[in-house]
Amino acid sequence: MAYSLEDSIEAERLEEQVFEQNYNIAQELKDLNVSFSGNILDGGSGTGVLCRYINSHYQIEKVDGLEFSALRIRQAQDLLSATEKSKISFFEGDLLNINSDFYEKYDHVVSRYVLEHLVDAPQALQQLIKCLKPGGTLSIIELDGVFFNLFSLDPQFNRYMDKLKSEVQFDLSVGKKIPALMYDLGLKNIQWEAQLVSCQGKSLDEEIKNTQKRFQALKNFLLNFFGNEKETEEFEKVYLEEMHKSWNTLTFTKYICKGVKF
Ligand SMILES: C[S@@+](CC[C@H](N)C(=O)[O-])C[C@H]1O[C@@H](n2cnc3c(N)ncnc32)[C@H](O)[C@@H]1O
Fold first, then answer.
1. Mean pLDDT, to the nearest integer, of 188-192?
2. Which atom of ligand 1 is nearest to the CA of 50?
3. How far is the CA of 92 from the centre of ligand 1 (A)?
4. Which of 57, 95, 135, 177 could form a disulfide with 124 if both were Cys (CB 3.0 to 4.6 A apart)?
5. Looking at the domain 9-146+169-198+253-260, which fold is it?
6. Domain coordinates in residue numbering, the chain
7. CA distance 143 to 148
8. Is the pLDDT of residue 1 over 80?
9. Structure confidence by residue, pLDDT tens digits, 24-54
């Protein structure tokens, strides 16, 4: 599995970022414009923030979260109130190989900021579509360019970024591919919206704090990637310094996509 933000600090980051401008869950679901009802599956449910949001804002029967990390599931369960526990359940599983018990069970399948962490997003999409009943809707919220799109002329920064871009296995450009992949996998009525996230002012301040937390959660991954503490700390320092320079642009695109299974 490519997802490496296993640290418990990642739970705190996931819970907080839904209120930030760049990852605002209320705005995302408004833009998605899906009337969730019946049984819902959240693929890669993390701390369950999307499951809880859907449960409290729509008339649904139940929401299941399917999540790879046992730690994240424990954290998600701890965050449920007694009433939420009757409607929301979490299951351990891999989106790349979903147990057939989940097939054709759901009116809506949704996944938010998960495919970008996978080595094979098309495979995960295919698996998620299998979980839909005929007539059900798949909704995907994904990014294109997050983190990697910071532009700087600094040579050391660019050496680090070139190394990361050429060696990491996950796909931080997956957002733009979702509508075509949905079509390729047989979905109909595909609709998508692309939104520019331009990190300046409050949005940049939030992204800087988010990145500091990402670095904390990614500590072991980065240590392993750069091979030693000194290099890892230098990379983090350089990245954050470049983020703070107002002439360095950081933009990325958020894709909000949906399609129907016939
Ligand atoms: C960035 S978090 C997003 C969590 C949640 N969707 C949200 O909106 O806050 C990505 C989540 O996907 C999970 N994940 C990564 N690879 C997975 C896989 N192959 N199968 C299931 N879950 C996976 C991670 O453990 C993590 O909880």
1. 98
2. 8
3. 11
4. 95
5. Rossmann fold (3.40.50)
6. 9-146+169-198+253-260
7. 11
8. no
9. 999 999 999 999 999 999 999 999 999 999 9
